[in-house]
Amino acid sequence: MWRLSLEVYNMAIAELLDIKGEKIGEVEIKDEVFGVDVKPHLIHDVVRMQLAKRRSGTASTKTRKDVNASGAKPFKQKGTGRARQGSMRSPLQVGGGVVFGPHPRDYSYTIPKKARRSALRSALTVRYTGYNLKILDKLELEGISTKTFNGILKMLNLTKPLFIINQKDEVIEKSARNIPYVKVLRTDGLNVYDIIRHEQLVLTLDALRKIEEVLAT
Predict the structure, then answer these.
(1) Range of lowest pLDDT (9-13, 33-37, 189-193)
(2) Quick check: helix, strand or coil at residue 165?
(3) Is domain 12-55+109-215 given the CATH code 3.40.1370.10 in the classification?
(4) What confidence tens digit (pLDDT) does each residue in 4-26 have?
(5) Taking a C-beta distance cutoff of 8 angstroms, is the pair 141, 172 a contact?
(6) Which of the residues 36, 87, 93, 204 has an alpha carbon 20 to 30 A from that of 5?
(7) The pTM is what?
(8) What is the model's pLDDT at position 22?
């Protein structure tokens, strides 16, 4: 469960690690991105927006005009002891139309860009203040290997991490895609939902600087 902190940092410092989990230095990170006042309501709003955009909205039912059935009166009006009926398409008949049933729709909506950026800063601050942020000097593999990548997870003591890299790297992305609870995103795909959903956030140094360049302005 993520924790909130409203502590103000004059200068945010994080450890710089190698892929073996060993500290090789320190790196300064910007307060404007990792040391803001956390706004849980904005995180909530953005996560709801992201999940709404993922809904397919393809549920559909047939109304009486869509049902392929005879429009003739099913039986005579009087003398049968049954309630009068005018069509086999009626919602009262088996196989008839559905009243007020769902139809295909778009569930997506947007919230202001300023609010989305603020929520992203809040989510990053949550990970930093909760000691669930790791920064790697680089993340490189000689070839596609799930086993090797899984070894990196163990050395870094990661259980459910989100890796952020600066640019496309098929070797890293394909090495991680079959490992449960692990996700690799590029900086242009960074989002609030995945940051909150994963327990740890791992940034390469290049990705860190790119995020700061975009969000600190």
Answers:
(1) 9-13
(2) strand
(3) yes
(4) 343 444 458 899 999 999 999 99
(5) yes
(6) 204
(7) 0.83
(8) 94
How far CA 89 is from CA of 69, 95, 103, 150, 185, in Å, comes to 6, 7, 18, 59, 51
Q: Where are the beta strands (DSSP E) in 21-98?
A: 23-29
- Token readout for 64 is 């009486």
pLDDT recorded at residue 11: 59
The token duo for 23 is 């500290």
C-beta contacts of 102-109 below 8 A and 24+ residues apart: 102/59, 102/60, 102/61, 103/59, 103/60, 103/61, 104/57, 104/58, 104/59, 104/60, 105/57, 106/57, 107/52, 107/53, 107/55, 107/57, 108/49, 108/52, 108/53, 108/55, 109/49, 109/52
Q: How far apart are CA 216 and CA 117, in angstroms?
A: 10
Q: What single letter denotes the amino acid at residue 97?
A: G
